[in-house]
Each structure stands twice: as C-alpha cells, then as structure tokens.
C-alpha cells in the first residue's frame, strides 16, 4: 500500500476530508467525556453514604395555620408528631430537622474553638459547617457511631434561657479543630463538645476529610423536615401511613413530599445524570452522522475514481487490493480524526471541569472509543468498497 498515494488522494478533496476529520474528533471527544460523566454519576450513586439511606424516610411539610406563629405551640405539635410516629410499628426513631445530609447549602455556620477563632482563616471549610438542629433521636436515625465521649440525651435538649448548649461533632471536624487531642469538654462558639461521632457522607461536594457536622439538641419551630428511621422491609408501610398520622395531630399542614434518603441522593445528582444523558444522546447523534458521512464520503470518492480503479484493475489489481485501498483511506482519515480527537477530549474535559466535577480522561476509555470509531468507519465504508472491488476491468476501462 502506497502511503504517499493515499495522502495525495486525500489532499485532492481536503475540504471534505477536513470536515470528516473534525467530525470524528468531536465525536471522539463527546464519547469519552460522556462515558466519564456517566461513570462518575454511577460511582457517586453507588458510593457508601455511611448511613442506611434505604430505611430513612423524609417528610417535607409546611404549616398553614396562623397558630404556628407561636413557637411554643409549634414545638408542642412537633413533639406530639414525633410521639405518634414513633408509636407506629416498624419505626425505630424520628426527629424534626431543618437540615438534610447530601445537599448543597442548608443551615451552615462558622465553627471554632472559643480560644482559637483565627483557625477559620486557615481552613475555609470551618466557615460553612452544616448544623443539625434536632432532638437526640437524630443519632438513632443516622445510626451514628460514637468515637469519643458520649451521645446526646434528652436532658441535653436546649431551652431558651439556657446559657450553653451541649453538642456532638463529627470526627473530621474534631481533627481539624484539635488534632489528636481530646475534644471532650472543649468549648466552641456553638457550644460544649460532649461527643465525637464517625464521619458519614454529609456534603458529597466536599473532600472526604472535610465531612463536618454539628448536632445541636434544639427544635427549630416549624422544622421543614421530619426524619424517620424504619425497620428493614417496613418503608412502604410507614410511607403510606405517615401523612395521615401527622395530619391527625394537626390537620392545618401541607405534606409536600414523602420520600426516602435514597431518593434524596438521586435527586442531588439529578443534574449530573441529566447532563450525562444529554451527552450520551449527542454521542448517538454524532455517531449516526459519522456513519452517514463516512459512507457518503467513500461512495462519492469511489464514484469519482472509477477511471483510476479501472486502470488498476486492468493492470492486474485484485479485488482484494481495491477493497483494502478504499478501506485504507478510511483508516487514515480515522487516524487523523483520532489525533485531533485526543485534543478535543482534553478540551471538552477542561471546559466541563470549569462548571462541574468531572474525572480526567484515562487511556483505556480513549483507546476503546478510538476502536469503536474505527469499527464504525470500516462498516460504513464496507459497502462502497465491496461495490468498487466488484467493478469488472472491462467496464471500468471504458471510461478511459
């Protein structure tokens, strides 16, 4: 196979070949980055959260009665709700909360030791620590594992007029505040630490060693969320009953949604999943266009080369030689498209990384994508190549 002859043939139609190369490069860039987005999303959804997301039920509700302007009334209704919910067979624990794990934003605040406020200047994450205002039952809902000190109890519930609040913090927060020293009894700007619990996935967008949280034993009036831990296999039963139970205590409330923590996690990554689906759809369209373009390019070029092919057949070229010649042109175009496609992969990846979290391209997915494009291009060119190789020398040479 004469490589120079192939290049010369391609240069004769450089505009059409150039467009096909650009199309192949963009297709390769989209395929690789779409696979990265899809795999990243799947990995995030399957990553252990550190809590039993399948058996934690969330109720979103809003009070519609003016009586709830009285904080004492609102808190009394909330406590009655908790008692009724926990009385249901299959419920382990329930608590109100204005904060959920696995979310952007929420109720955040700054955190530092009372004697070392400047630590926030060296650790930006200490300025945005999630606060869980809830009853002590939140520890059972999340099944928190105690590392140091003790868990919160009902006697720790903070009441208006109390001077200081007892709090529990996560292990990573304790480490960044006090290092290897004990945190028990230390006073912070948010209360006195009585316990440290094992980290769980509170803020997926933050590093694994920055999963901060502060658990505060205090009921915020009209808390937007109820969190309920149920026994395995009881989720649907409790889900079907809980709205009626809550409204039986006080009907002037709007139950917005009842769902699982697993649903909450899926919704958190809904944008990533949607973007991955969009890119996959674009990939499918680009692959279809590439197939059509490769076929059309080969068919048009072959029709213009009947004279040259006829001469080669008359001079003794075999069908196999003609077939390989046509396919070799496609493989050369694919090779050029792959070269520029690697640049497109990196460019698209950098562009996406400016707007969302995405892994860097790896060699194996890139090689697989190049092979897929090569196979697609070969199949698209196969029919024109077969037709060309079947041209009898006598018919072909009539055009000379």
From TrEMBL:
<dbReference type="Pfam" id="PF02687">
    <property type="entry name" value="FtsX"/>
</dbReference>
<dbReference type="GO" id="GO:0005886">
    <property type="term" value="C:plasma membrane"/>
</dbReference>
<dbReference type="GO" id="GO:0022857">
    <property type="term" value="F:transmembrane transporter activity"/>
</dbReference>
<keyword id="KW-1003">Cell membrane</keyword>
<keyword id="KW-1133">Transmembrane helix</keyword>
<keyword id="KW-0812">Transmembrane</keyword>
<feature type="transmembrane region" description="Helical">
    <location>
        <begin position="363"/>
        <end position="383"/>
    </location>
</feature>
<feature type="transmembrane region" description="Helical">
    <location>
        <begin position="275"/>
        <end position="298"/>
    </location>
</feature>
<dbReference type="InterPro" id="IPR050250">
    <property type="entry name" value="Macrolide_Exporter_MacB"/>
</dbReference>
<keyword id="KW-0472">Membrane</keyword>
<protein>
    <submittedName>
        <fullName>ABC transporter permease</fullName>
    </submittedName>
</protein>
<dbReference type="Pfam" id="PF12704">
    <property type="entry name" value="MacB_PCD"/>
</dbReference>
<dbReference type="InterPro" id="IPR003838">
    <property type="entry name" value="ABC3_permease_C"/>
</dbReference>
<feature type="domain" description="ABC3 transporter permease C-terminal">
    <location>
        <begin position="281"/>
        <end position="393"/>
    </location>
</feature>
<feature type="transmembrane region" description="Helical">
    <location>
        <begin position="322"/>
        <end position="351"/>
    </location>
</feature>
<comment type="similarity">
    <text>Belongs to the ABC-4 integral membrane protein family.</text>
</comment>
<dbReference type="InterPro" id="IPR025857">
    <property type="entry name" value="MacB_PCD"/>
</dbReference>
<feature type="domain" description="MacB-like periplasmic core">
    <location>
        <begin position="24"/>
        <end position="217"/>
    </location>
</feature>
